[in-house]
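README: folding subset

This subset contains proteins for which both the sequence and a predicted C-alpha cell string are available. Records are stored as plain text. Below is the entry for Cysteine desufuration protein SufE (138 residues), shown exactly as it appears on disk.
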Amino acid sequence: MTLPAALAEVVGEFGAVTGQDKLQLLLEFANELPALPSHLEEAAMEPVPECQSPLFLDVDATDPEHVRLYFSAPAEAPTTRGFASILAAGLDGQSAADILAVPDDFYADLGLAALISPLRLRGMSAMLARIKRRLRAS
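--- output ---
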C-alpha cells in the first residue's frame, strides 16, 4: 500500500491499539481537528453529503507539491470529526500525486470496521474521494 509517511504513521497508531481503544483514539483525533483559518468560511466549502453528520471540506491545490486540506464538522459529530482529523493529519501538506496514490480503502487498515457502522466508514471513503476529485480537476 502506498501511503504518505504521515498517513502511514496514523494507520500505525491505530494498528498499535485494539478494541475499544481504537474508538478512544478516534475520539482523540476528533478533538485535534484543526480549526478553520480565518480566511475560510464553512459556507464556501464543499459539503460531503455521504457523511451522516454535516461535514465540509476545502482543497487548496494552489501549490500541488503542498496541498492544503481544511475540514469543518460539528463537535457533536465525533466520528466524522475523527475521520476528517485523520485525513488532515495524514494528508495535509502532501503533494497532489501522493494524495492521489492513496488507496481508496486505506481506512480498512485502521481496524475500525468491527466498531463503526459501514455507513459511517463510507463517509470517510467519500471524503477521500472528493479530495481526489478536486485534485484531478485542478
